[in-house]
Structure formats: structure tokens, C-alpha cells
Design brief:
Elements: H1 2-14, H2 28-34, E1 41-44, H3 47-54, H4 62-65, E2 81-88, E3 102-103, E4 109-112, E5 116-117, E6 123-126, E7 130-133, H5 139-150, E8 158-165, E9 170-175, E10 181-184, H6 192-198, E11 209-215, E12 218-223, H7 224-229, E13 242-247, E14 251-256, E15 262-265, H8 273-279, E16 293-299, H9 301-306, E17 318-324, H10 330-335, E18 345-348, H11 352-378
Parallel strand pairs: 1-17, 9-13, 14-18
Antiparallel strand pairs: 2-4, 2-5, 2-8, 3-4, 6-7, 9-10, 11-12, 11-13, 14-15, 16-17, 16-18
Helix pairs in contact: 1-11
Length: 380
Amino acid sequence: MRVASAVVLLLALGGCSTLPHDGPSTRSVPRQAAHGAALYALVDLDYAVTQQIAAHPPVALTGLSHQSSGAPNDLIAEGDALGVSVFEAGGGGLFSHTPEIVQLTTGDSQQTLPRLIVDTDGDLVIPFAGPVHVAGLRPAEAAAVIRQALRRRAVDPQVTVTVLESRANSVAIIGQVRNAGHIALSPHNDRLIDVLASAGGPTKQPADLAVVVYRGGRYAEVSLAALMAEPDQNIRLAPGDQIRVVDRPRKYSTFGAFGRDSQTAIEDDTLTLANAMSRAGGLDTYSAAGRSVLVFRFERPEVATALGVTRPPAAKGVPVVYRLDFLNPDSLFVANNFEIRSDDLLYVPRSDITEMKKFFDLINSVTQIGYNVRVTSTIP
């Protein structure tokens, strides 16, 4: 009995802090923030705060907007497959006796040469002209060089050059697209959204995908939703760029006195705090401290500055805890105007009454043990 009394006394002295908890208490979050010991800033959430956040919407990552390429995407390179056609005036020209001759109604002739490949020296072997260097030239420039090589042999030759296939002027795209592979660039198919469309489009909703562009040992990333909303992000691609469309699922977590603890996907384009609480089963009627609905977030520095937060940013942003008094009727409008972001953590502490009940339940258990020990000891 003495041992049991001593245990009860220790519990009484220690108070509720000796009991197990599933997170910080109602008092610990503001107390630690007020003493300056916390790494986070505490911001009371009201309608004005939600308006201030809305006034600073997320800006599409600038990693792409300044990466638009001015490099030409029609220069002939080693390994390119070219189509060359030669037109001659009259029917007695250099190519008029070849089997592939096409006689035009004007008496002129046209010869389309077999598919030609640019060799490792950057040359094309043209019949009657020999090797002609075309690497680094545009098709029109290559046509002029070939015409010059044929000029003394053919009858007033006119030459056209068409690029049939070019890996050098293509980009590679992989990831969450329907048709991964190499996509040829052209003046009408050289922007990021053009290439995504040529690859069959994304396989998931844009809000859950990010586009990463690798170029010259560097890379930049933007969400697909931002890419579609911000024209500046739809950059011109450079030959040799590599594009990955990666899955970036948006999720938020709920802990504490909710109907259930969970990690939930954000399936809509936007999700409000009211919607998120509803999906978590709402507040636990018997244990939730409704005056302290907390949202833990790494906030964007520009938003933190607008809210008067002076905490230095971490790698992911400025640690901020938003606190909403859900017992205030106005909070319902606030919760419906506050947008949940990916990786937000929603937490509601247990009420003081709940913690006190746990304390007295423990006291009751200990005294019951002491009573049982005393009764057992009196049995002869």
C-alpha cells in the first residue's frame, strides 16, 4: 500500500506531463513559439491572413522561364537521313537517263535521289558531284552547295534538300507520357508543350506531374499545371535536351484528434482546409481541442514576409504553424478560404479535459492495484 501511495504521489507531482501523448499539447505550441525556442513561427489564421496568402499565389518555377533555347534545330548533322531532289531544265539533262526520272509537263525533268546518309565526315555523296560537305548547314544552304557542285554538269540544276530523320535535332522524352522516345524538333514543334503533345500527352492529371528538362549537365523543373498556365514556361527546346515527366503526387497528413490519422491524396486542383478536415472524418467530438486546429507548413518566403514572419527559411521554406480557432463561427468561412498545399500536416491536440481524464484513469488504475494488493495481503 505504501508503494502504491508513493506512485500516486509521484503522478500527482508530475501532472499530466507524465502521461503518453500523440503529439504536442494545446499549450506547448504557442509557448515554445513565444519563447523563441521554436524553429517555427505561429500565425493565427483569420480571413485577412487567407487573403494575404491568396495575394501571393505560387509562381511557376523560374528554372524554365529563363532556359528558352535560341539554338537552331534544323542544322544538318552526322547520321542525318536526307532526301535530295534535282530539277533540270529540258529533257536532256544529266539525270534524264536514270530509271527514277520524272518528266514534267514543261519538258523539264526531276530526279529524287535515294535516301542519303550524312557520313562521319559530314559529307553527302551526290552522283556526278562526289562528296559534298553539308554538316552544320541548314537544308536550304545544303541545297545551294549541292547545286553549285552540279552546276557545270547538269542543265541549270535546282536542288531541294529535306531532312527525313535527324537524331541530332531531336529531344528524348520519358516518364509519365503515353509514347516515350525521340521527338524531332522543327520550327513548328520545338516548344515543350508541342513535344509533350507529340509524345501522346501525360498519363495523369497535370497537378500531380512535374516536367524536368536536362540540358548540358544542368536541369530545371516545373509542375505541369504551371507549365500549362504560364506561357513563359513553355520554352523552346534545344537539340539533345532530355525531358522527364515525373510523378509528384500531392498529399497531406492528419494527426491528433481527428476522426482518423491518415495521409490523403489531393485529388482536386484545389483543396480547402474545410474539405481536408471533412475527409479526415472531422474533429473528434470527445477529445479535440477545437480552438487549436493547426496546419504545419514550410511556407514560401514571399508569403512569410507578407505575413510579418521573420524566421529564416529552411531548405523547403519558412516553417510556419497556422492556428485556427474552430469554435469561432467565422472560422468556417476561414477554413473554406484556406488552401491546403502538398505536404501540409494537419494536427489537432487533445483537449485538457481529455488529458485530465487520462490522468485520473491512471490514478484510478494505480489505486485499484493498491487496493487489490491490500485485500490479497489480508487473506490468510
